[in-house]
Amino acid sequence: MSRPLNKTQLLESIQKEYTDLEKFLAPLTPEQMAFSSAPGAWAVKDILAHLHEWQQMFLDWYEAGVRGDTPKVPAPGYKWNQLPELNQAIYEKYRSLSPEQALAMFRESHHRTIEFIESLPEADLTAPGLYKWMNRNTLMAYLNANTAAHYVWALKDAKKALKR
């Protein structure tokens, strides 16, 4: 999967990966979505909650930037080299969700993210360092990482979760 270069490519890439993930999820029962092979191992529902939280974090970063604030990224108390710890905290935050709740939250945050992308001018998506928290990155890079690329990871890990 190559990195999208414009808004159209970004939306097409997201749609393709989202569709692939939804096709995988469609036949799963709530029991399958909640199956975890070992204590602390992520189930499909945990992966969906993870996707939701990362999309929400991105939208929060963006809103802070619009207000002129500089949010703590990736999250307060965490640096980019502490992603395993942050992801574990996300797992702990959502692990009691039901499969239905996790799926609904993921779908809602996906749709909010798509609406957000559609609302932005292409120039905002491709401008390096539009807000201070971005350093020299573009919104498109963050959005691709939090959607299409994350969906590829999620599908791979969800398949593994069911095989264990």
Describe this structure in words.
The protein has one domain: Up-down Bundle (Four Helix Bundle (Hemerythrin (Met), subunit A)). Helix 3 packs parallel to helix 5 and helix 7 (139-146) runs parallel beside helix 8. 67% of the residues lie in helices and 0% in strands. The protein is globular. The mean pLDDT is 95. It is mostly helical. It is built from 8 helices and no strands.
Head-to-tail CA distance between termini: 27 Å
Total number of distinct structural domains: 1
Helix content: 55-70%
Give the CATH topology. Four Helix Bundle (Hemerythrin (Met), subunit A)
What's the SSE pattern?
Answer: HHHHHHHH
The helix-and-strand class reads mainly alpha
Give a count of the beta strands, DSSP E runs of length 2 or more. Answer: 0
CATH homologous superfamily descriptor: dinb family like domain
- DSSP helix count? 8
In summary, what is this structure?
The protein contains 8 helices and no strands.
List keywords for this structure.
Four Helix Bundle (Hemerythrin (Met), subunit A), 67% helix, mainly alpha, 164 residues, 0% strand, single chain
Describe the secondary-structure layout.
Blueprint: H1 7-25, H2 30-34, H3 44-67, H4 83-94, H5 99-119, H6 122-126, H7 139-146, H8 148-163
Helix pairs in contact: 1-8, 3-4, 3-5, 3-8, 7-8
